[in-house]
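Consider the tokenized backbone below.
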């Protein structure tokens, strides 16, 4: 069975080509009784990881507030329940009030002890040619315990070659329609940050998937996707010193600007969406009205979608760790 390989310069093209390839080459299978079309074995390559935001409106529109919140939640090492404000459907996968498969604690404090992100950073600084720059997310002791939430991501690997940092993500399972856009968004931020801490160029991002699939209800929508004639723009650089990283994340999560163009886009989007969730729609829209950041721009479109067609958003099924948007 040949491996499916898809390469693109930006996430929108990568998403479009991947979904089309799954419909063309996939086979029907129904894990847990849910009908899917599946390709077994895929490598998706993004050559410009900062072109990370999938924007193929009107067919597939992301909730940028959830994309930003999930990335910050993971990078900060959190499993706190504030993420539910950005995706209420996640609650159904919680045990004891927490998502037991949350990536953040595994990334930043594995078994309460190891900050894997810092360990990999230090390993690459000490030996740029190392093959041991590995972050593990799947934990057999935890994930075979019967919790509702089991990570789809097995781990990350990094290789610094000829001055460029390349990233490899391993997935046991990937929903191409709901999950892929959000995963690529978050994981390439991690990729970019680590490259910055190493003073390295940003190399290719590789997304390796065992079961790459589409649920039956999304197959017809794939036919409406079109190849976009122009490459999607890159997001603003997110490089920040390691010593400032955690304090900066806390400030951005609180919705407070930090004086950094890229991260301030995250902060204003989180602050705006919290007001939207409090039903103060005028204040939410006013916060982002003059912002030119790509996330704020996308959030303005998301608010229009909520106002004009909330049923379409509500129809999106939830899957573990979200990967589906929430209606306000």
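A designed sequence for it:
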């Amino acid at each position: 069975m040949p491996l499916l390989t898809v390469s693109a310069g930006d996430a929108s093209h990568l998403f479009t080509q991947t979904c089309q390839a799954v419909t063309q080459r996939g086979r029907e299978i129904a894990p847990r009784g849910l009908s899917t079309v599946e390709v077994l074995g895929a490598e998706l390559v993004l050559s410009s990881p900062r072109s990370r935001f999938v924007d193929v409106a009107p067919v597939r529109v992301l909730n940028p507030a959830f994309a930003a919140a999930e990335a910050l939640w993971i990078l900060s090492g959190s499993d706190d329940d504030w993420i539910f404000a950005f995706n209420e459907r996640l609650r159904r996968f919680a045990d004891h009030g927490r998502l037991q498969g949350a990536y953040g604690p595994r990334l930043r404090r594995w078994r309460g002890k190891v900050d894997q992100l810092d360990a990999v950073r230090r390993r690459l600084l000490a030996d740029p040619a190392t093959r041991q720059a590995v972050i593990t997310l799947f934990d057999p002791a935890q994930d075979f315990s019967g919790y509702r939430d089991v990570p789809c991501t097995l781990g990350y690997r990094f290789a610094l070659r000829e001055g460029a940092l390349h990233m490899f993500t391993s997935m046991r399972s990937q929903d191409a329609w709901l999950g892929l856009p959000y995963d690529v968004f978050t994981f390439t931020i991690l990729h970019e940050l680590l490259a910055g801490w190493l003073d390295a160029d940003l190399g290719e991002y590789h997304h390796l998937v065992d079961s790459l699939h589409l649920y039956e209800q999304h197959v017809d929508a794939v036919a409406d996707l079109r190849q976009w004639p122009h490459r999607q723009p890159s997001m603003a650089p997110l490089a920040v010193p390691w010593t400032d990283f955690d304090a900066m994340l806390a400030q951005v999560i609180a919705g407070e600007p930090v004086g950094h163009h890229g991260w301030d886009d995250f902060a204003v989007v989180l602050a705006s969406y919290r007001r939207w969730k409090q039903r103060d729609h005028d204040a939410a829209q006013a916060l982002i009205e003059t912002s030119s950041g790509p996330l704020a721009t996308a959030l303005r479109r998301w608010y229009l979608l909520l106002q004009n067609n909330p049923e379409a958003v509500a129809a999106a099924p939830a899957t573990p760790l979200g990967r589906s948007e929430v209606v306000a």
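Confidence is low (pLDDT under 50) at residues 314-328.
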